[in-house]
Amino acid sequence: MGAGTVVVIALLVFAAVTLAKGLRIVPQGTEWIVERLGKYHATLYPGLNIIIPYLDNVAYKLVTKDIILDVQEQEVITKDNAVILVNAIAFIKITDPIKAVYGVTDFSEAIRNLIMTTLRSIVGDMELDEALSSRDQIKARLRESIADEAIDWGLTVKSVEIQDIKPTESMVRAMEAQASAERERKAMVTKAEGAKQAAILEAEARLAAARQDAEAQVQLADASAEAIRRVAAAIGDQEAPMRYMLGERYLSALGKLTESANAKTLVLPADIQEAVRGLLGRGMGKG
């Protein structure tokens, strides 16, 4: 084989390699960024593309399909100083490949960190109960807050979902203890209210009984007064009612004395005996 033949073969090989380097087939769902001499030159779209070998270089291969970003779980402090765990998932799409590769060092990490910091800010403005029950509100505010920044990076945030939002284990234990204390407090209040109502009912019952006793005493006094008046009218002696009342009370006292276990002998004063006999005598005389 002569020298000329070797040169021809070498040229053919070089031409084949050069042609291979100049023809690029871009898969569907991707876009390639071409740099020429270290500077952005062109964007290659799906299909067959031609570049200049040795001058052009495919620097970046970007996926134009929806990208799923899993945002790791993080601790967030709420407005009322409760600690909760929050994690999310984002669906983004590259809409401007040039901004995505030249506007930020790593767009995936950038959007992930942006979501985490924004999420902390949103939840930090809420109290615990509100945060646990407001997933849709948090999601809407999060997507709205990061949309403008994402556009500057050549990205579109299609959706952000809150995967989980829950208190930490220590917070759960504290909430359980608080709930238990609240139940005990309510039970004590209920018991105290019951005792209060019972005391009120008992007092009302005693008051009603006292009123009835007072009314009975009044009626008894009225009846006694009427009886004394009639006795006085019957015997024609105005002093008789006084003697009658004294005699009645004396006899009542004697009755109580006779009920005593120590009572043996009763001595009646002469004036009382005379008063009783006189009263009875006048009554019989009138009759």
UniProtKB/TrEMBL annotation:
GO terms for cellular component: plasma membrane; side of membrane. Its main location: membrane. Residues 21-179 form the Band domain. It is a single-pass membrane protein. This is SPFH domain, Band 7 family protein. PANTHER family: STOMATIN-LIKE PROTEIN 2, MITOCHONDRIAL. It is found in: Membrane. Belongs to the band 7/mec-2 family. Gene3D superfamilies: Band 7 domain. GO terms for biological process: mitochondrion organization. The lineage of its organism: Bacteria, Pseudomonadati, Pseudomonadota, Betaproteobacteria, Nitrosomonadales.
